[in-house]
Design a protein that fits this description.
The protein contains seven helices and 13 strands. The strands form four sheets. Strands 2, 4, 5, 6, 9 and 10 form a six-stranded antiparallel sheet that branches. It has a three-stranded antiparallel sheet with strand order 3-7-8, with no helix packed on it. Strands 1-11 form a two-stranded antiparallel ribbon. Strand 12 and strand 13 form a beta hairpin. The protein has 274 residues and is of the alpha+beta class. 26% of the residues are buried. The protein has two domains: 143 residues, no CATH class; 121 residues, Immunoglobulins (Immunoglobulin-like, Sandwich). The longest helix is centred in the middle third of the chain and has 44 residues.
Length: 274
């Protein structure tokens, strides 16, 4: 499973990162358009399009009935009841395709978050690296250390937090580039990617032990060993925001708005009833 998500991660990176280097806005709009099309195609494939069209037509007919016969209280109440019934039917027709849409959209979101969720430190900025142990064993915790390559600097000694089973270091970025920090335990050593750049880049936030949800979220690097004394190695990159026009917000806000906008624009072209 991890290998599959790793391949997906690489595919998304090949498409999104080059666009993002031109403009994060362009990358986000392209992703939103792609997602809107994917949602429409899945909805059309998994739904009863004819039944949805009939149900929508009946809802419109009963709404028109309310407008035309608003002086007849009995007919208005009957029409309102029919609108409610057909609205519930419409929701029932939409449940299966909406459930089918959740899986691919979740994959798109989790993979795209590697580019949009965080930003790397620029030269002369700092980040923290957190090692979370599976169990707090003082002998292991005291002997766990890190080393950084040229281009990075270790700014603080280890801060050990037994109640959280964590060890934290602050690392300074001296120059741009892709680096590997080495985490050493008494048993063996592990590496963690760290990127330094002046602009947004594809980032692997954490390297973790294998599990399905973690594979989906952190597929940018190979997993740690299942029997490793370390549960995760995280680089605490800064959270990023995206500006489109006058609005600066979390990338998911723009993503959901433009995905829906593009879906409604493309809907007539793909002939989808929603």
């Amino acid at each position: 499973m991890w290998r599959l998500f790793h391949i997906l991660n690489a595919c998304f990176r090949v498409v999104i990162e080059p666009l993002g280097r031109i403009s994060p806005t362009l990358a986000l709009l392209t992703l939103s358009l792609f997602t809107g099309i994917v949602m429409l195609l899945i909805f059309r494939t998994t739904s009863n399009q004819q039944a949805i069209k009939r149900t929508k037509d009946r809802i419109k007919a009963h709404l028109l009935e309310i407008l035309l016969y608003n002086d007849n209280l009995g007919m208005v109440f009957r029409a309102q009841g029919s609108v409610l019934v057909h609205s519930l039917k419409y929701m029932g027709f939409a449940m299966v395709p909406m459930a089918a849409i959740l899986v691919p959209v979740a994959i798109i979101l989790t993979q795209s978050s590697h580019f949009f969720e965080h930003k790397p430190p620029a030269p002369h900025e700092s980040v923290t690296l957190t090692v979370t142990l599976t169990q707090w064993v003082p002998e292991i915790a005291e002997k766990t250390s890190i080393s950084v390559p040229v281009g990075l600097s270790l700014e603080t000694p280890a801060l050990r937090i037994p109640e959280k089973k964590q060890i934290v270091w602050r690392i300074g970025a001296r120059e741009p580039g892709d680096f590997e920090v080495v985490v050493r335990t008494p048993a063996r050593s592990y590496t963690k990617q760290l990127r330094v750049a002046d602009s947004r880049r594809w980032l692997s936030y954490a390297r973790v032990r294998p599990a399905f949800a973690r594979a989906l979220l952190h597929s940018g690097e190979p997993p740690l060993d299942r029997d490793a004394p370390i549960d995760s190695i995280e680089v605490n990159y800064t959270y990023a925001r995206v500006r489109i026009g006058p609005i600066e917000a979390h990338w998911l806000v723009h993503f959901f708005i433009f995905s829906m906008v593009f879906a409604f624009i493309v809907k007539p072209v793909l002939k989808v009833e929603i």
